[in-house]
From TrEMBL:
This is Lipid kinase, YegS/Rv2252/BmrU family. SMART domains: DAGKc. Its cofactor is Mg(2+). It comes from the Bacteria. PROSITE patterns: DAGK. GO terms for cellular component: plasma membrane. Residues 1-131 form the DAGKc domain. GO terms for biological process: phospholipid biosynthetic process.
């Protein structure tokens, strides 16, 4: 049986609309399903666990944005039972959907899920007993995630279907005040001492922050995380280089370094904010480990 976890508030109400269209398709096709709707932050995780344990579903489809996907994935991870993740995108950023090439159209997305023809196992990034499915970011990045999540303008811009601008505006705000610091990275036993670090992004997919390509080479099913480090660049230099991230052209920038690894420790001069899938998760020092092939998804 299939379970659905629906965030009606995702994409500023798009979740509700998408679910209405899915429901009529499911009824037309006589699909047997269970549905749970979220009413607040964090609830998608609890509802996913409930669907697995009480309803014995073998697949959960997250209807919402990246926040909903991340919470459902944590529910599946915590339940520890065989359960496939499906996703019908209805958020404002939808990085997971982009990163896995999922259809934007709800009818096409559910058709693909029901056909079960494209299942694959992907890696997860384990941090502090939880998991991230898209990315973990420390430093500038963590501060931008915090600023965006706390900002009133995110809601307004989402309403105008300009959700991406909320992230960009937060980047500009944080860029004006953020102070880079020295960081020690330990990747698979190898030490990297790095000076004046702005950000460290650990990625499972190339997509980030609603359409940026932070780690264009990242693959979700290779058992390795792609790590992007931005170091020793001036504030103005970073401001001018920033637009390159939308096309992935930042890979050639002299102050951008790419590393790869399975076990990553980040230690820093000062505590750095860390996000997991765009939600605040921790402060440095942190340890991130790849859980290879841990989650089966409908790709
Ligand atoms: N019924 C609800 N009312 C208000 N907020 C909710 C409700 N259910 C869940 N939430 C919260 O809505 C927030 C946004 O969810 P989600 O990330 O799925 O969508 P989004 O932010 O529009 O998309 P994206 O993350 O792809 O940009 C999450 O913080 C979630 O916890």
């Amino acid at each position: 049986m299939i379970g659905f976890v629906v965030n009606p508030a995702a994409g500023n109400g798009k979740g509700e609309k998408v679910w209405n269209s899915l429901e009529s398709i499911l009824r037309q096709q006589g699909v047997v399903y269970r549905v749970r709707r979220t009413s607040s932050e964090g609830e998608a995780e609890t509802l996913a666990i409930e669907l697995i344990e009480k309803e014995e579903v073998k697949m959960i489809v997250a209807v919402g944005g990246d926040g909903t996907v991340s919470e459902v994935v944590n529910g599946i991870y915590e339940a520890g039972k065989e359960c496939t993740l499906g996703h019908v995108p209805a958020g404002s950023g939808n990085d997971f959907a982009r990163g896995h090439g999922l259809p934007k159209d709800p009818a096409q997305a559910i058709e693909r899920i029901l056909s079960k023809t494209r299942e694959k196992c992907i890696d997860l990034l384990k941090i502090n007993g939880r998991v991230a499915v898209n990315s973990v970011g420390a430093g500038f990045d963590g501060q931008v995630a915090k600023t965006t999540n706390e900002a009133g303008y995110k809601k307004w811009l989402n309403r105008l279907r300009l959700g991406k601008l909320a992230y960009i505006w937060s980047v500009i705000r944080v860029l004006c005040t953020y102070c880079p610091c020295d960081v020690t990275l330990l990747i698979d036993g190898q030490v990297h001492q790095m000076k004046r670090i702005w950000l460290i992004a650990i990625a499972n997919i190339p997509n980030y922050g609603g359409g940026m390509l932070i780690c264009p080479q990242a693959l979700p099913d290779d058992g390795v995380a792609e790590i992007c480090v931005v170091q020793n660049v001036t504030r103005l230099g970073l401001l001018f280089a920033f637009p390159r991230i939308f096309t992935g052209a930042h890979v050639d920038h002299p102050n951008v370094v790419f590393l790869r690894g399975r076990q990553i420790t980040i230690e820093s001069e000062q505590p750095l904010l860390v996000h997991a899938d765009g939600e605040m998760a921790a402060q440095t020092p942190i340890y991130v480990e790849i859980e290879a092939g841990k989650l089966r998804i409908c790709g």
